[in-house]
Structure formats: structure tokens, C-alpha cells
Amino acid sequence: MVTLSVNNLFMPQIQPVLWDLIQQDDNSSALRVLLQEYLQMPRDSIRTLVMSAEKDAVKRFISHMHQSWDQLQVETSQQQAMETMTAAFIHKFPRVTPELFVDLSQFIPFMSVSDIMSFPASLIVNDSVALSSPKLTATALSGRLTAIRDHSSEMKLPQKKAFVKRLLQSQAVGDVPTWPPYFLSSILPLLPYLPVSHFQQLTPQQVTLSVSSCLQGSSLAEPQISGPVLDILGPLLPFLDRDSLALVDREALALRMEDMRSFCFPKEALRDISNIQKDISVKQTVLNKDIVEQILVGQKRWKDSEVGRVCVVQCVDEHQYRQQTQSLIQWIVKARNLPTPSCADIRGTFPSAWTSTQLSRMSEKELRECVEVFGQDSSLSSVQRRALWIRLRQLFNPGRELRTDQVLALGSLVTEMGDRELQDSGLTDMTVLAHLGTLTDWNPRKMRAVVLNVMRKRRLKVEQLTDVDLATFGHLICGLYPSEMKRLNSYNLSVAVMFLREMSLPCTEQQMEALTSCLSRPEAFGPVSAWGPEIFTEIGTLAAGLPDIVLSALLQEQVEGITPEAIAMMSPKKMAVVFSAVQLSWLSVEQAWAVTQEQWAELDSEQRHALTLARYEGDVLLEHRGVCVWGKHNFYYRSIFISYGDTCFCRGINTNSFFLLFYREKPGSRTATHR
């Protein structure tokens, strides 16, 4: 009789007995015993045994494990041993075949990121046939992608991101809008982990299909939308209609609130989710001061993140957002029941939670400790900022110029300094000016006071301002009169525009026209009629200042170079006057969706029709199903009803279309070919 042990498991003379024993025992009991013995070995021994065994024996062992995986039991404490075993199997076979990958699929949750990245891209998707090719069928993809999908709920975030990265490196994947339905269905659990630049390229139809597939495949077979389904939906969750949201498991949703902070919500969906949150809080009686403070801190962290900044600018009703935030903050203030806040109270809430009277009553010690916190709160009102500045200026050595570190700490509070204070201050340091130029709370008079102070102290005329000066001014450049702007050195402005191109300058139309008139001189970019699309892209938002007659005469390739941000900055009447229906039809999808609600309202029916066609890339059938109207929209897909409220401008929706809450990346700046 031959004695079996893990030490001789893969010996040639033992293998026939082993396979016979495993197969007689219905592939499970004997294998379970052997696996448990295997996992008890030291990690180095596991690695040595696998690497020294015959490849055919290891392949057969892996295959038996794959067939019997549902009957095998792996304890949580054996996680590291499983990871070692998995790494050993992968290293044993440097060239993993599609068949072997499927047999290894039960080990996917134990694979390291480096091992996943070592797989050839063609392993997941065959590089020899493009996804859009009729030769590539759902069957051809099913094995490998289904293996990843089936084990996605057990995978960690880095593993999912690694598979996505490897998938996107395959030449067969192609452009996101060309991905066929069966491919989207196969990678559904990975969709939330696509890079934002790829996710935002998904077409409305693709997003619709993904949501619908998830619901039809999962929730319609259950009384509730469970946690695993929520994990699969990821950032697609906001696209559920109200009836579907009612089926969401409240406890599962509560556990995923932290992840949801990174999502971007339509206004109506945000209200529905907020109501669910309130229900959860009331039922669990967890709405206490500490929890609310954590929510507010997390919300601020999200607002400052890349996705948060996009959502706030593009997709959030700022008034409603501020009301909701203030409601939570006031709840905390009442809970504390303190007439005068301490710095700890301020940090635990936000400065804007407190009235100007309460802020002005703070002690000098508490004020000093919280200067930077005050300066970073962009939601402070002018009255609150003024109350704080009146107190703080008494602490900063009255009569002396503010130090650089003091100005930087004050943040937006500097905008409440008086005209004389601004002119007498030492706000001429380039670091300080660069900071002041990013602030958005200036009024025209104070911007001018800062600019005049700089020129006076440095004894400069407008014509002598360098490209560095102009770039450093930022928003403060609007402190110059139009007549002064026309005297700027055109070449210097053309260089500085690289730093001004993404700013929403608070200039008047006359000031913007003065700036663009400088840019159209020979020493800058030359006459606008000779500009290529790259120059329109390079000057960014300043293109909104081109005169009406100039914009009306633009050719198609020139219009294509205008950035979406520049389009959004044009006044509604200006857009309606300068762009004909033909010119609006030239807009790209990104440009067309940059048109604001106010601009849309000024367009005539022919212009709106042209703009709608541009938004849907000329899809006449889609456009004819319902002209885009700002307001309440409904969307029907088979038996599922999805409803949305007011749309925002990342992508809008109309009847029978979908609202994708992600914006595409801004066109990259390209250097002009001539000066």
C-alpha cells in the first residue's frame, strides 16, 4: 500500500493512486483532506513543493480543485497560505493559457496585483480579433471574463483595478463607445473601477444596458437589492429609479455610505438617497453629533477631491447643497448649545455654521488657533468674512504690513480688507499674489486696489507687466480697465494665457474683448481669421471674449478648437446672436453639453435642433424621440422605469436618452504654431 502525504503528493508513482482516490470520492473528500494538509505547511515549503513538482501533475491537481471548489473549505486564517499557493501556481506556469486561467479562477481572490499585471493582455481578451469584429462572439469571451465576474465579490479593490488596467491594455478592446453589449455584461462588476477618463466615454445606451442588466440579472429575482448587487452597480447606483431604490437593502446601503461619497448624483437621485439616509439614521438612532460631524468632514474631503470638484462645478445645485450642509451644521450648533464657539467647535463643524455675531465674539486665543480653518472655508458669506477680518486685523500687528505666511493663512478673508488696507499692505510678493489671484470673492474695486498697489510699489506701467506678472495676477487681471488691458504687451499676454486659460475670469465683456484684442495682434497669435483650432484651445476660456462679429465668422475647424469651458462662459444673449444653427451643429458632444440652461433658453427652435443633433452626434432617430427640454425627464427601458429631475450639464438627458454624470477630460492645451 502507498502512503499519501503532501510531501509526495506530486511524485510520479503516487499520481495514479491520487487521481483514482480523488475520482472515486466524487472529487471532494480526499481532495479536501489533502488541501487542508497542504495549507498547514510553511509558506516556503508550499512554494518549494509546487515549483519542484511535475507540471502535468500540478495542472491536474488545479483542474480537480476547480471542479470541486464548491465542496472545499478554506478558513480565513488560511488566507496567506492560499496567497502563497496561488503565487506558486502562477510562477509555475509563466505562460498561462486561457484554459489554465479558467481552472485557476477560484484563486482569483488570492492573486497579487503584480501577478495579475504579469498576465498577457491577450489572456483576458484575444488581441487578434477586435471587440467590434463580428468574428468575436460572446461565447469566445465567456470563459475568462465570466471567471473574473463570478469571483468579483470576493476580490479586493486593488485586484479589480489591476484586472481593469490589464484589460484596457489589450489592443482588441478598442474605444469605449464601441464595446458591444455582451462584453459590457461580462465586465459589469469591473465597470465602476474603470478610470474616470474611460467611464465618462460610456454612451447613454451602454450605461442603460449596464444598469438594466444588473437589475434584471439580480434584483428582479430577489425581494431586495442586496449588498452584492450594490457593489456591482457601484457609481451606477444613482441611475436607479425611485421604485428600484425602494427595494435597496437599507442595512447594506448603510455599510456602503463611505463609498457613495465618491459618486456624482443627479439632483432628484440625491434627494431620494438623502431620504433613505434619514430613514436609516432614524431607525438605527445613530444620528448624533459625532456622526454628523464625521459626515460633514467626509463631505468636505469629497468636495476637495478631483471628482468632487467636478461634481460641484458641473452637477450640483449649489443652493440646495449649501442648504443641506447648513441644515446639518445648524443641528450640531444646536446640539452643542453654545452661544460662542471655540476653535474646536469650528473644526468640528465649519466656520460658516456660525453667525457673524457668534464668530465676532470668539476670544483672541481661539481666533488665532483657527485662522487657517477660516481661510479655507469657501462657503463663508461676505458678512461672516468681514466680521472675522475686523477681529483678526487687530491680532496681526495693526499698522504693519502682513507677512506672507499671514496672508496665506487668511485665505479668502483677505478679500474683506478695505481698499486703503489693500493699497497699504505688502501684497506684492509673488507667492502672495499667486494665492490672491486664485480667490474668487473679490469685487472689482478691491481687485483694482491690489493691482494698483503692485504697480505702484514696483514702479511699473501697464506696458511693463511681464508674462509672469500677468500669469500671477490670475483673477486679479480683471482689476485693470479695458483701456489699460489694450496697452498690455501682447506677446507677454500670449505666454501668460497658458495659465489663465482654465480660469473663469470675473471680467466684464468689455474687459474680455480687450484681452482678446491683444491676443489677435501680430506679436501674439495674429488675426483671428488665421487661427487654427489649436490656438482657440490654447487660449481656453478667453475665447469667450472674442467680439460677436469675429465669432460669427468662425469656420468649422476653428469652432472645434473652442473649449467647453469657454462656451459655458459666453453670455446667453451673445451665444444666441453669434452662433448660427449651422455653427452649433459643428459642436462636439463635449462642447454641445457645455451649453448652459440659460444659454439654451435664448436659442431659437432651429438653433436648439442643431444643438440637440450635436449632443447626440447626429443621431437623428434619437433626437426625434424627444427634443431635449430642461426640466423633468422620464426614461423607459423595457419594463424598468427610470426618472430624473432637473439635469445638469455634464451630460443632459431627453426622453429615451440617459443622463451620464461624468464629464469628459478637458482638451489638452496645445502650443500655438506661430506668435
From TrEMBL:
A Pfam entry, by short name: Stereocilin
InterPro entries recorded: Stereocilin-rel, Stereocilin_LRR
Entry keyword Signal: yes
Keywords for the protein's UniProt record, in alphabetical order: Glycoprotein, Signal
Domain Stereocilin LRR positions: 16-220
GO (cellular component) term, any one: stereocilium tip
Gene Ontology BP, a term: cell-matrix adhesion
Keyword Cell cycle: no
The protein, known as: Stereocilin LRR domain-containing protein
Organism per entry: Oryzias sinensis (Chinese medaka)
Lineage, top ranks: Eukaryota, Metazoa, Chordata, Craniata, Vertebrata
